Amino acid sequence: MRLDAAPDARPSRFGDVAVICFLVVQALDGGLTYLGVRTWGPGIEANPLVSSAMTYAGWGAGLAGTKLMAGAFGILLHLRHVHGLVALLTAFYVAVAIIPWTALFLTH
């Protein structure tokens, strides 16, 4: 996983799927986070960067800004052909965001 991959490398179906999955997971995380904050208050957000952005800019704008930035970085990695890292980040977000939010909503 090199960050300096050649920009003219051939298209990758794996990379295309990885970036689409990454963007879907970011959208899901944003939606679940917004619902969680509306339900239980801003203290429920565990990510200090997202929490700070929401405190500074408001729940919607702060959350949208952090999710748009994450999506932009994911697309940038995809364009640099660092597909393995995009896939790894997707799995990471599923493990530390989607699964915990889902479990929280299902148990309360």
Descriptive account of the structure:
- This protein has 108 residues and is mostly helical.
- The protein has one domain.
- It has four helices and no strands.
- Helix 2 crosses helix 3.
- The chain is globular.
- It starts with 12 loop residues before the first helix and ends with a helix.
Output the radius of gyration: 15 Å
Structural class: mainly alpha
Number of helices: 4
* Total tally of structural domains: 1
Q: Give the number of DSSP strands.
A: 0
First and last CA, distance: 40 Å
H and E string: HHHH
Largest sheet: none
DSSP strand (E) fraction?
A: under 5%
Mean of all residue-level pLDDT scores? 92
Q: Low-confidence spans: pLDDT under 50, at least 5 residues?
A: none
Percentage of residues in helical conformation = over 70%
Silhouette: globular
Keywords:
single chain; 108 residues; mainly alpha
List the helices and strands and how they pair.
Layout: H1 13-40, H2 48-57, H3 59-79, H4 83-107
Describe the structure in brief.
Helices cover 78% and strands 0% of the residues. It has 108 residues and is an all-alpha fold. It has one domain.
